[in-house]
Amino acid sequence: MLTVYIDFKSAASYLALEPTLELARETGIAIDWLPFSVRPFFVPKEQENETVGERHRRVRAAAQRDIHLHYAAVQGRDMQFSDMPAGSDAALAALAMIEGDPVPFLRAAFAAYWAERADLADETAVETLLQSVDMDRPDWESASVKLDSIRSRAEESGIFEAPSYLIADQLFLGREHLPWIRSIIAAKHGD
Question: What is the pLDDT of residue 66?
Fold first, then answer.
């Protein structure tokens, strides 16, 4: 089992979705998709009298955004960054409650956030997404409790960012580790 922690507002999680699904198809490994809320990403606006530190953070964030946009183009994905990023807590809570295959919801939620700039902290918007993939609305109170429980366990495991991968008691941060994860899967199956 490969456990993957994601957040819909994480550009890196969005770009990791399809490569991770491809890994699962090729290796036959099951994936447990778990929610993990991260800070929203944005590029600070240039200030007239910004400090060296402020300039560094702005330039670094712009470079990171440009890298994400490059990989989105390589994958043929629409990705729009917002000056005021929306939340994702309702979608993450809904993910925590999904029994069965969450992939249709994952694809719908990521597309809504990154292509349509949907606010996935809005329960009504998330209920509409769930309906679009023939899934039921969750009991929001129970979903919130479960989301908090998942986060606590994740933090105890050392998770602090998304996407994070857990396999064979090893933790990996980011899709760039998928080749290493593939080798662990192959070693476990004697390939």
Answer: 93
Q: Are 164 and 5 in contact (CB under 8 A)?
A: yes
Alpha carbon of 56 to those of 11, 49, 62: distances in Å?
A: 20, 13, 10
Cα–Cα distance between 57 and 18 in angstroms, integer?
Answer: 29
* Amino acid of residue 171: L
d(CA 70, CA 27): 27
With b for 16 or more beta-carbon neighbours within 10 A and e for fewer, the 159-171 pattern comes to: beebbbbbbeeee
Q: How many angstroms separate the CA atoms of 163 and 51, rounded?
A: 31
What tens digit of pLDDT does each residue of 37-64 get?
A: 999 888 888 889 999 999 999 999 889 9
Distance (Å) of CA 11 to CA 55, 68, 82, 98, 117: 22, 7, 12, 22, 12
Neighbours of 3 (CB within 10 A): 17
Give me the numbers of helices (H) and strands (E) for the chain, helices first please.
Answer: 7, 4
Determine contact, residues 176/20, Cβ cutoff 8 Å.
no
CB 113 within 8 Å of CB 86: yes
pLDDT digits (tens, 9 = 90+) for 25-40: 999 999 999 999 999 8
Q: Are the C-beta atoms of residues 7 and 106 closer than 8 Å to each other?
A: no
d(CA 11, CA 113): 10
